[in-house]
Specification:
The protein has a 3-stranded antiparallel sheet with strand order 2-1-3, with no helix packed on it. It is rod-shaped, with a radius of gyration of 55 Å. It has helices at about 1-20, 45, 65-170; strands at about 25, 35, 50. By secondary structure, the chain is mainly alpha-helical. It starts with a helix and ends with a helix. The chain has a domain at about 1-65. It contains 3 helices and 3 strands, in the order H-E-E-H-E-H.
């Protein structure tokens, strides 16, 4: 029983150690990514496309040119993401400022429309007053003309009466 447990522990340790020691990564035809400890463990069809993913340094192979480019690209994307996250408060403030500016423009436009409407109402009222004054003057002019005609008619009547009186009574 002790030997069975010790064998099971050893096999598990070797399996975990083997997975941890895997150094080359490749993708098969089905799109499944696999790792292998040695490049010779990678099937021949995928060997040229296998990428070193293990540690680098003294006594260890360096990353391939493609892996270096991928690492640089990943670092660049990470830095872009960090910078973008750092800019989030500023974007929010910029959006708030844009909303305030739009609200100010809308308020200014409404204010201008209100001023224009008040000015138009004032001009319309002034035009109506001028028209009323013209109408009143026209009525007064007609009344004056009618009085003048009445006065002229009275004067004519009086002069006819005077002429009649003179003829009748000789004065």
């Amino acid at each position: 029983m002790k030997t069975t447990i010790s064998v099971a522990v050893a096999v598990t340790a070797l399996a975990l150690a083997g997975a941890a020691e895997a150094q080359y990564r490749y993708t098969d035809d089905k799109g499944v990514t696999k790792t292998a400890q040695y490049k010779l463990d990678v099937p021949a069809d995928y060997r040229d496309a296998a990428v070193w993913v293990g540690p680098t340094g003294v006594g260890k192979p360096s990353l391939s040119a493609g892996a270096n480019q991928q690492k640089q690209l990943d670092d660049a994307y990470r830095r872009i993401g960090e910078a973008d996250a750092a800019l989030a408060p500023y974007r929010a403030a910029e959006a708030a400022a844009a909303q305030r500016e739009q609200a100010n423009r809308a308020a200014a436009q409404q204010s201008k429309q209100a001023r224009d409407a008040a000015l138009k109402a004032k001009q319309d009222a002034a035009r109506e007053r001028r028209e009323e004054m013209r109408a009143e003057r026209a009525v007064r002019a007609q009344e004056d003309a009618a009085r003048a005609l009445q006065d002229a008619a009275r004067a004519e009547y009086i002069s006819q009466q005077n002429a009649y009186q003179r003829r009748m009574y000789g004065r």
